[in-house]
Amino acid sequence: MLHRLLLWAVVNAEEALEAHLNCHKLMESRLRESHIQQPICQQKVAGIYCSRLLEVERPRPLAGSCPLDPSRVASPTHAVEGHVPQTNGTMQHRSLQHLALGVLLLAAYQSQLVLIQHLVESFWHAAHTFLVHVDLKSQQLERQLRDWSAAPRLSNVHVERAVAVRRSGASLLAAELYGMRRLLTLSKTWHYFMILSDSDQLVRPAEYLQRVLALHEGRSFINTEVLGVKPKSIAVECSDRVHSVRMGGHEDGVPIRPNLTLASGSQFVVLHRQFAEFAVDGLGETGDEVAKLVADGPTYSGRISQTGWSLAREVLNEVLFFASPDETFFHTLAVNSQHCTRHLRYNFHFHDTQGNFLDEASRSYTDFPTGSPPVLTSSSLPLLQQVRDHHPIIFARKFDATNKSSMSFLKSDVTSLVKHRDGWWLAPGTSKEATTGMRSSRYSAHAVKLKACAGAAREAELEYRKGAASSSC
Q1: pLDDT at residue 69 tops 90
Q2: If you average pLDDT over every residue of the chain, what do you get?
Q3: Which of 84, 86, 171, 375 sits a CA distance of 20 to 30 A from 28?
Q4: Which residue ranges run through the membrane (predicted)?
């Protein structure tokens, strides 16, 4: 009944504004009888619901810019991993230079302080820029990290606290986009943006990361999967909870905007600076503006100065109110833009996927219960080594500073893996003492399409020794 009334309001209203106001009034009255009791949340849910309903009933096709055939990209048999142009046998010469990183480290738990410090120290370099975003709820952790980063050597480590994060909600994406915008402002020189968490640690030497990025410089790493299903409901984060709201008349899911290819994947993306700049285009000039836009959604959309049309803004408006938009925004933007030919379908992170479990505690703050990988301990070593031997993983999660077995595993086994080089990153006949000079040397490489396939890590190690990278794995 409610849907018929809302649909009538949309179809018969002379203007979209009048339709929205009619819908909002009807929706608010219904929400007073729901579990959403806070008036401010009732207003927010009603506003977002009616905006989405109006968009569904009056759809506007997305003007994407991916040169690939959308139907081919959306096919379940098509791997969206970026297009590699034909090289016709020619070689591309690149300088083996150190690539500066803009690293966003999302921190939430005071108990993880020692792990946060260890992670930063493990691949710190003067050319990098680190931003540790501390959850707004963790004031003590912020103070401790500020004291630690006050050391002169850590002048490129910035600690800020801006967003209260709840998994499955828009706030996690707000923290990521806040961090990205801040890093773009803090440094004009970094080449790659990456997202890490306070439970991540390196499982390879930092030089390995540098070599992989150098082989694929210009491309982003986004583990993307095209979704063939509609989101079941709208997700609205308000106050202390992420609410699920089904769209009446669309029991099979929320319709997707015409010409939009919806994609999803791991939040732990590694983005080339060009893509990072593209991803925040039109979302605000400061980190605070970007975070406010994501937090408020449509009610804030008119208060950001915008010089022209922004595909990032269009995609954000579409995915923002689905569950876990942090696992959707960058992926959907990539496959609907010219960057669909400039990214690789890969995730540098290892975690025990078979051990994933439902985080029952998440039910206290979201209608979309979240999963979580198990804590890594010494029993995880055989699996980690097996995956590490066959895939170029660089980070692993999750480590827990309150778990003695996890910390012991990190200090012994994982530390050995990181320090153990065996000359794998040296060119033939090169001594370890000469490695400093290698950063300015020249080498030849074909354009490489990195895949998570058997033997990829071993082949990647041989590529540098031979001075040429194979075109596929």
Answers
A1: no
A2: 81
A3: 171
A4: none
What pTM was estimated for this model as a whole?
A: 0.82
Tell me, yes or no, whether 250 and 294 share the same domain: no
Distance CA 267, CA 263 (A): 12
Distance CA 47, CA 337 (A): 29
In a domain, 67, yes or no: no
**3-state secondary structure (DSSP) of residue 294:** helix
Strands (DSSP E) along 362-446, which ranges? 371-372, 395-396, 442-445
The pair phi, psi for residue 184, each rounded to 5°, is -65, -30
Residue 335 to residue 68: CA distance in whole angstroms = 9
Q: Count CB neighbours of 159 within 10 A.
A: 23
Q: Do 145 and 29 belong to one domain?
A: no
Determine, yes or no, domain membership for 77.
no
**Residues written for the chain:** 473
Q: Tell me, yes or no, whether 39 and 144 share the same domain.
A: no
CB atoms under 10 Å from CB of 58, counted, come to: 11
Among 261, 278, 307, residue at a domain's last position: 261
**At which of 242, 261, 280 does a domain end?**
261
φ, ψ dihedrals at 94, nearest 5°: -130, 150
What is the number of structural domains in the chain? Answer: 2
Relative to beta strand 270-272, strand 343-344 is unpaired
Beta bridge partners of 371: 358
Confirm if 432 and 419 have CB atoms less than 8 A apart: no
Cis check: omega of the bond before 419, within 30 degrees of 0? no
Amino acid occupying residue 241 = R
108 shares its domain with 123:
yes
Asked if residue 27 and residue 6 are part of one domain, the reply reads yes
Domain extent, residue 149, equals: 92-226+264-466
Q: Quote the pLDDT of residue 82.
A: 46
228 vs 406, residue with greater confidence: 406
343 and 363 in a single domain? The answer is yes
CA dist list (Å): 261 to 207, 276, 328, 338: 36, 20, 11, 13
Coil vs helix vs strand at 83: coil
* pLDDT (tens digit per residue) in 286-345: 999 999 888 877 555 444 555 567 999 999 999 999 999 999 999 999 999 999 989 888
Residue 75 falls inside a structural domain: no
391 plus 282 within the same structural domain: yes
User: SS3 for 150-195, per residue?
Assistant: CCHHHCCEEEECCCCCCCCCHHHHHHHHHHHHHHHHHCCCCCEEEE
Reading the block at residue 381, the tokens are: 């070593």
Q: Is residue 76 part of a domain?
A: no
Encode burial over 197-225: b for 16+ CB neighbours within 10 A, e otherwise. Answer: bbbbbbbbbbbbbbbbbbbbeebbbbbbe
End-to-end CA distance of the chain: 56
Are 152 and 27 part of one and the same domain? Answer: no
